[in-house]
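Project standup — Tuesday

K.O.: blocked on the structure for the chain from last sprint. Re-posting the sequence here as requested.
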Amino acid sequence: MARQRPGNESQPEITGEAERAPRLNPEIEKRLNAHIDANKSDHEYYGRLVKEKPDYAVRVLMLKDLRRHEGDMRMIERQLPQAKEFFAKQTPEVQQRINERLKGVNPYYGDKAFVNEVIAEMGRQNRRQLMQPMTAGMRMGAEAPAAGVGV
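H.V.: unblocked you, prediction finished:
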């Protein structure tokens, strides 16, 4: 089944094997090859595992993903109380915007998505503050006068 590359209709269609082929990044390939050279027995083990027990090989890969997810969730659990506090202090419009972005998120990833959306909103608000005109009398690079000092 052929499909067009999204956002770039001038590119040729992706078909068959090219559609399933992984994208190779030369820098990552270089690092991966060095890691494989340093861990030849692991490479052989995984090669045999894929050939002899492909279902188990998939489970091994998914276990690595699970461990990464659990590590992410430990960090998210520490951030969640502050994210909820930030969310509660926001205007109804901001809360609605965050909730809209969370629609359709798999509940398994709900807390992670919520924290990430709150962090994104914090970044948007910080950028807006930076875009505000500077206060009258202040110039870029100039320090504010010390308290009690006349200008």
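K.O.: great, moving the ticket to review. The first helix runs from residue 16 to 20. The two ends are 73 Å apart (CA to CA).
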